[in-house]
Amino acid sequence: MTRTPAEQLLQAIAALEAIDDPQEQALRGHQLQETMKGATMQVRRITDAAVAKLRETKPLAEVADLLGVSNKRISQMATGRHGVNRRPPSTIFAVQIIGEDTWHGQPDALPPTEYQTTTWQPKTGTGNRFDGKLLEVRYGPVPDNIPPSYYTYTTVDGKRMRPTAAVHDVIFSSDE
């Protein structure tokens, strides 16, 4: 018998609870948390696209009953600003120290015509490897397979964006 994705997730959580070593449990728990955060948008897009396809052949009320949600929510999922046609949020996918040539993160995640740049200065004293440096950042609507970080950064010009998990990890790694 094949388990549903929801059952597999619950099984992963149960396996996490069963780990006796606190260090291993913390590491695996953090990995699962980050994976779930990154997967949320992808799962939403997949679900919204499936709802949009269902709406082509089934009445609104029938699709709402199937999922146990309101007609309004089904309409939002299928066509609204939360639906399959909405533009993904901008995410910081690469950073470099201004005046240097090395990009960190995933600098080729988007072609040059699909991203923008701005500057960001990490807060000093937070243990990041770019402490006190002004960074150029590339941002744009990255593909679903690039997970975002849980954290939000505020750029020099006041934009609030999440970095990808890879960018956040680079910023707070100890590697030089």
Any overview of this molecule?
The chain is of the alpha+beta class. The protein folds into 2 domains: 5-79, no CATH class; 91-171, no CATH class. The protein has 5 helices and 6 strands; from the N terminus they run H-H-H-H-E-E-E-E-E-E-H. It has helices at residues 5-17, 22-57, 60-67, 71-79, 165-171; strands spanning 91-97, 104-105, 116-120, 135-140, 153-154, 160-163. Strands 1, 2, 3, 4, 5 and 6 form a 6-stranded mixed β-sheet that branches. A hairpin with a 5-residue loop joins strand 5 and strand 6. The longest helix is centred in the first third of the chain and has 36 residues, at 22-57. The chain is flat. The model has no long low-confidence stretch (mean pLDDT 85).
Mean pLDDT: 85
- Main sheet attributes: strand count, strand direction, barrel closure: 6 strands, mixed
Helix content: 40-55%
Q: Treating each run of at least 4 consecutive H or I residues as one helix, how many helices?
A: 5
What class, by secondary structure content? alpha+beta
Secondary structure: elements and pairs:
Layout: H1 5-17, H2 22-57, H3 60-67, H4 71-79, E1 91-97, E2 104-105, E3 116-120, E4 135-140, E5 153-154, E6 160-163, H5 165-171
Parallel strand pairs: 1-6
Antiparallel strand pairs: 1-2, 1-4, 3-4, 5-6
Helix pairs in contact: 1-2, 2-4, 3-4
